[in-house]
Design brief:
This protein has 314 residues and is an alpha/beta fold. It has helices at residues 3-11, 29-36, 53-60, 72-80, 82-85, 100-106, 122-125, 152-158, 161-171, 177-189, 197-210, 222-232, 235-249, 263-278, 294-299; strands at residues 43-46, 64-68, 90-93, 113-117, 255-260, 282-284, 307-313. The chain has two domains: 3-123 and 234-313, Vaccinia Virus protein VP39 (Rossmann fold, 3-Layer(aba) Sandwich); 149-232, DNA polymerase, domain 1 (Orthogonal Bundle), CATH 1.10.150. It has 15 helices and seven strands. Strands 3-2-1-4-5-7-6 form a seven-stranded mixed sheet, with helices on both faces. Helix 3 links the parallel strand 1 (43-46) and strand 2. It is found in: Cytoplasm.
Amino acid sequence: MRAEEMDEGLFGEQGEEGEVGDSHIPVMLFPAIDALLVTPGEWYVDGTFGHGGHSGEILARGGNVLAFDVDPAAVSRGKSTYEKEYPGRFLIVSENHRRVAEIANSHHIRPRGILIDSGWASSQMTDESLGMSFSSDTPLDMRMDPTLDSSALDLLETLGQDELVQIFSDLGEEPMAWLIARNMVEARSRGHLPRTGKELAAFVSAVYYRKGFRRSRKHPATRVFMALRIAVNREIESLTLGITEGRKVLPVGGRIVVISFHSREDRVVKHLFRDWKQSGCGQILFQRGVVPDQAEILANPRARSARMRAFSID
Ligand SMILES: C[S@@+](CC[C@H](N)C(=O)[O-])C[C@H]1O[C@@H](n2cnc3c(N)ncnc32)[C@H](O)[C@@H]1O
């Protein structure tokens, strides 16, 4: 799958990504939970609780769940639902899953599987206060975890041109990274920095327009938004640590299942699993990863950018 194909499900057509009000449709629910091989009575880590779709399926199959989320709203949802419905079988912590080994050990939990369904819940994408949408009038924040130091606007206000180029090209694979960053720094020096989702979307569109682009299948600001979101939330670092720390607490036969939504993230997972296999740690379960079938994509267009990979520990 090309990078563009993986990316476009994220922001390309905002508001058409499987959102139903405030809810979130879990992606590849059954393939992911099947890959975890849930044994009743054993513990599993849901590293990205969100709206609890995957946790709910693990619980329904008799597994116990230690859930993580950095978003306080997700943690409250978990506490008011599953923690009450499944006393002693469900525990949710307001933590980044990069701390999975430490937190599991502190609760004397030895999980048999770990699931990471990376990125954002649909409700976060449409949350006005996060400034994530192209039409948002609130300051560009983009922090899933409100305790993080820097918002997207902080990055735009303080980073140099080279650092902005690196974010846009490395994390967003934005072909106009250099031009957008240069225009951004110039606009900043004139006091015209884009400060809201709406302003940033218009700013990037104008750069494309001046270069002669008139129409595209997705919004021209898609990659810049994605890059900023990944940078603000240090998503690549968290994913890498969540997976590598997670492996430390898994027993032989334990499984790690990761669903990612863009090629940059998927590459991290693919390379980690390949390195583990080469060093004899276990087996890659699906060589090319698993993608959603047409029926799922029709029912939930956001799923079209997903790819699931899984590893079994020897
Ligand atoms: C795609 S949603 C998960 C959806 C969930 N599987 C479901 O079925 O509802 C991702 C969630 O993980 C959280 N999240 C993202 N990165 C995280 C991290 N490094 N540690 C903990 N939570 C994280 C986000 O706040 C969001 O709620």
